[in-house]
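Hi,

I'm pasting everything inline rather than attaching a file, because the server keeps stripping attachments. The sequence lines come first, and each chain or strand is labelled.
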Amino acid sequence: MAPLVASLLAPLVLAGCGFEPGIDPLVISTAPSNPFSEFAPTIEPVDSIPPAYAPENPELSPVAETARIPEFPGSLAWIAGVLAVVTSALSGLTFLRHREADRPPIFPLIFIAVLITVVTILVELLFVAAEIIMLLSGIGETPQGVVLGLILAVLGLFLINFDLAFVIYVYRVGSAPAGEDVRVNLRFWEGWGLSQPDEGK
Amino acid sequence: MTWIVAFGLALAILYLMPRRIVKLYRKDLLTARNFALTFATGWSLAFLVLFYVGLAETLIARRDPILTALGLVVAIVNFALSYPIALVFHERVMQILLKRYSRE
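And the predicted assembly:
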């Protein structure tokens, strides 16, 4: 009885499910085999870049370029600073006087004058380097660059003025009559003190 | 009045000195010796001009041989000091700067 019922119901159940056992199963297609595969380059993992393909230096801003100069000598600025401190300390010592008319000794003054000259030369060299940088970078050819160059030249003139004022002060200390108060005079229009012999009396 | 002339001439010397150095560099003639010579000559010449032109009236009025010789002595001392300093400066600073700008 049971086999009879099963044989009657089976077609109905299978028709309800839509099952069709005669359809071929789904096959996912693959790429056809490459006939030139033996000529193709082998792809291997890369763990380093060959030197021929190394990237070039990236273009940096002027500020970053400047920061990439580790060998720029800061020692020059240090030497100029130390010389300036020593010079000012020595020149301060020479002005320790008991009376107003006392004069500092001439040989320390000459030594200080030489030190001042060395310091002014070092500073002037920095001005010259700055102007050379401006000219090489093209800024020096523009109107603003010309004005900046003139400002640097005026600063150089100030250095010469200071140096000459001290040299002439040394001359005045050595040549002025006894009792005359001699002081450093930075006013170039007065000949650094030479045009006014009565000054300080 | 002589001060205006003296400062004008000295200003022109100090302004033209770096331009002369750059001109030598662009002609590929800038050696350490040329740099030092140009700098020392310009610097000493500016001293000489400022001293003798600026103090012309005072020098004529005083007629002091020591004062007259002082300008020359100062210029010689400046040249003698600035030449070796400029040589060292060229070796330690200028070469690095010029290399950098020749690369760009």
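The interface with chain A takes residues 3, 7, 10-11, 14-15, 17-19, 21-22, 25, 39, 43, 46-47, 50-51, 54-55, 57-58, 62, 64, 66-67, 70, 74, 77-78, 81-82, 85-86, 89, 92-94, 96-98, 100-101 of chain B (CB under 8 Å).

If the labels don't parse on your end, tell me and I'll reformat.
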